């Protein structure tokens, strides 16, 4: 990689220190957001969420956006008796930081389907509350309902596609969600040599019907792991 600079497009914001670290490894990353996330503000949500803080409930998060949007309704209080099931990486970090949840009460996985399997394997989960966005994927709630576990979905944020036509050619593109995949490919086509990097299997699955390009799944669900995956790939190919 030292003899060639690689040009990457990231479809979401990345921390400045991570961009600098990538630059030092010969990778120049350009940021363009392809979705817009807007927390939902309503008295109805406040009236539903705040009583839950005092209850022993099983709660599911599959995105950090849902954690942040739900936490905004908590008014400085924290759920002491929530059993939280969430995806690893940014979502777990948001749970620990915004909900102050003890690690003993957090169950994680890297994929929604296997997270659902963990919930079912517990054997003592009467129902779950699923905080999500308006474009949530159905794998987890559908699987739980099929196995007799009721799911209350509380939609706390809206995701809107914000397509941008890309004129440059990139060596790789970072995709962090199926919504970003849909937004990107609604107005763009990729040259055959551009590599698609997906944050997880769900995002990779969204890419597969839209492109024949190589798809590389990140070794983990954090932005840092995505960057490290790309660095390793280009160093070895």
Please sum up the structure shown:
Residues 23-228 form the Tetrapyrrole biosynthesis uroporphyrinogen III synthase domain. With 237 residues, this protein is of the alpha/beta class.
Secondary-structure blueprint:
Layout: E1 6-10, H1 16-24, E2 27-31, E3 35-39, H2 43-52, E4 58-61, H3 64-71, E5 83-87, H4 90-98, E6 106-109, H5 112-122, E7 128-133, H6 139-146, E8 151-161, E9 172-175, H7 178-185, E10 195-198, H8 201-207, E11 215-217, H9 223-235
Helix pairs in contact: 3-4, 5-6
Using DSSP, what is the number of strands?
Answer: 11
Instruction: Assign an overall shape.
Output: elongated
Radius of gyration: 19 Å
Biggest beta sheet summary: 6 strands, mixed
Instruction: State the end-to-end distance.
Output: 10 Å
Percent of residues in helices = 25-40%
CATH topology annotation of the largest domain: Rossmann fold
Order of helices and strands: EHEEHEHEHEHEHEEHEHEH
Supply the number of helical segments.
Answer: 9
- Known CATH architecture of the largest domain: 3-Layer(aba) Sandwich
Q: What is the beta-strand fraction?
A: 15-25%
Determine the mean pLDDT. Answer: 93
Number of domains: 2
- State the strand order across the main sheet: 3-8-7-4-5-6
Please identify the top-level CATH class of the largest domain: Alpha Beta
Low-confidence stretches: none
Which structural class should the secondary elements be placed in?
A: alpha/beta
Organism: Chitinophaga agrisoli
GO molecular function, one term: uroporphyrinogen-III synthase activity
InterPro entries: 4pyrrol_syn_uPrphyn_synt_sf, 4pyrrol_synth_uPrphyn_synth, UROS/Hem4
Domain Tetrapyrrole biosynthesis uroporphyrinogen III synthase: 23-228
